[in-house]
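Quick log. Single chain, no ligands specified.
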Amino acid sequence: MKSVLSMILTFATLFALSACSSPSAAPAPAPAENSAPVQSAAPAQSAAPEENAVPEESPVYVQSVELPAQSTEAADAGKVLVAYFSKTGNTEAVANMIAAATGGTLFKVETVTPYPEDYNETVDIARNEQDNDARPALSTHVENMADYDVIYLGYPNWWGTMPQAMFTFLEEYDFSGKTIAPFCTHGGSALGRSEGDIAALVPDATLLPGFAVSGSRAAGAQADVEAWLGGLDIA
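-> predicted structure:
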C-alpha cells in the first residue's frame, strides 16, 4: 500500500511541475557575419554647377555712331575733302566723323572690280597687288579736285600700308600745294609705312601727322578723332 501511494505522489509531483513550467521562446537567428544594415535611400539632390564655369557670352553689336552737327563755318569754306577707301566699314565710320566735324565733302574711293566678301580671298588679292605694285582701276572719281585745299585721306592698313587702290587715287590728281591729313584703321600696325608712301607719291603736298585707330574701336573713336583734328595746324 505504501509503495502505491509513493508512486502516486511521485507521479503527481512530476505532473504539477510539467504543467507549471512555460516553454522558452525560440532565440532569434544570429545575423550573418559582416552583413551591413540596410539604409533608407536619401532624397536625390541636384548636381552642383561646375566650378569656374563660364557663362555663354552675349553677342556684341556695333552701335551706330551719333555724329555731331556739321560746322557751318567749315562747310561755307567748301575746301575740305574727306576721301577714303573702306572694305568693312571701319574706315568709313571714322570718315563720317571727320566730315561731320569739319564740314568736309565725303568721297568714297571704289574699285572697278570689287574685293570679294571672303576675308582670306581679299587678303590674298591685296598681297598680290602689293607684290606687283598694282594700280587697281577706280570706278569713282573727284570731278573738282582743284576746289579742295585740305584732303583727309582715309584707308585700312593692308600689309603695312594703304591698299593699292589709294596709290591709284593719289596718282590720278595733282596735289601740289594741298594739305593732306591721313587717317587709317588697323589691326595692330597703326599707320605702318603709309605716311612715307604718301609723301613719295605727292611730294609737293604738305603732309600732316596722321591718325590711326584699331578697327575694333573705330565706331567709338569720336573723342579721339576730335582730339586729333584739334591738334592739326590747319588755318
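The two ends are 163 Å apart (CA to CA).
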